[in-house]
Amino acid sequence: MDRRRRKTRNAIFEAFIALLDRHSYGQITVGQIIERADVGRATFYAHFETKEELLKALCRELFAHIFEAAEGEETAHSYLFDCQAPDSVFLHLFQHLQKDDNRILTLLSCRNNDLFLGYFKEELRELIKSREAQFSGRKDPRLPDAFWLDHIAATFTETLRWWLENGRKEPPETITEYFYLAV
Amino acid sequence: MDRRRRKTRNAIFEAFIALLDRHSYGQITVGQIIERADVGRATFYAHFETKEELLKALCRELFAHIFEAAEGEETAHSYLFDCQAPDSVFLHLFQHLQKDDNRILTLLSCRNNDLFLGYFKEELRELIKSREAQFSGRKDPRLPDAFWLDHIAATFTETLRWWLENGRKEPPETITEYFYLAV
DNA sequence: TCTATAGCATACAAAATGTTCGGAAACAAC
DNA sequence: GTTGTTTCCGAACATTTTGTATGCTATAGA
Q: Which member of A25, A91, B171, B176 lies 3.0 to 4.6 Å from B91 by CB, making a disulfide possible if both were Cys?
């Protein structure tokens, strides 16, 4: 990708993130974004058709990193859903999030929470689905597989939400333990 | 409240609900709403300052009914969180929702799901909070109260979401059992 | 150095927002 | 029924936002 294109794309993302931190998604206008990004109006529309598309692209970009990392860890013989395993994928997700090396924590903690946690859950569901066997042992036989799958993704996402909205006081190990105790 | 005022207020709600069923919240315009409600532009703004306010008012109105009913059942010696109890509040919530006497099921099943399930969870959390003692017995002592409280509300809400998004095939008794098995 | 591409400023049409006004109809209270 | 109040309407209006078009400049990458 052309360096110029990369740069403006990034400028738009940054401006969008900064605005999401202060205003609700619905109130943010393209005008505000391009002003903050210091980018021409036509340029914006050359990159993204609408504000919604911008949001989607941002989500894809951010979550790709997180879940790529989670995928990678699988090869290093980690366990997706073993309470005892000290290096479960869930723990790693919390650890990775806590580092806040990219701006994902900003977005997951901002007033527009729901927008991103929704995407997060979808991605997580796919991740869990691809390793269904690893955690079916924990399931009560009376529960349908589809329900159980969704339940794990939902519980993790809601645990994450709780952690974020309560100031992230607990270390990753503790909040992961809460998750395991709850699910 | 003046009858005229009641009528237009309702017409606006109905139009809004019908539109939410077909379009995403962000795309719905005040113009569409007033056209469908057959109401003057100035009239709309006399009732609601913004589209957001309309949404909030709608949520308040609808959920008030549901949770009022749930509150009432308490007096009839039901149990909030007893697996065995055949008349737990949770079962009653599912039963009440299945009847679909008001338009709440339409809204909870539409593409704008998240908007309403978020409000639902908030309301439910308050309900559970007010009866904290009734279900603390089920809690693992290592979990903080605040986490547990949130977890129950979240799990019920996500169970409800799953039920809705999978066509509500299970009878209230079954889906309530799933909830109890999961939480 | 050359060429394709990205960006800029500006201008513009179209749509949506939010406000104002005077007159008509419905209401409530007497 | 009369009266005073409230609500609605229609229409007009200013403002904001959206999305597109254009001609020119700067830069990337070969």
A: B176
Radius of gyration of chain A (CA): 18
A122 — contact with chain B (CB < 8 Å)? no
Are B69 and B92 a contacting pair, CB within 8 Å? yes
Please report, rounded to whole angstroms, the spatial distance between the CA atom of protein residue A33 and the C1' atom of nucleotide D20.
18
How far is B142 from B145, CA to CA, in rounded Å?
9
Residue count of chain B: 183
Q: What is the pLDDT of residue A102?
A: 67
Domain B55-182 has CATH 2.40.128.270: no
> How high does pLDDT run on average in chain A?
89
Cβ distance A182 to B147 less than 8 Å, yes or no, reads: yes
Interface list for B 13-52 with A (CB within 8 A): 26, 52
Q: List the single range of A23-27, A62-66, A177-181 with lowest mean pLDDT.
A: A62-66
Among chain B residues, CA nearest to A119 = B114
Neighbours of A43 (CB within 10 A): 16
Residue A150 with chain B: CB contacts under 8 Å:
158, 162
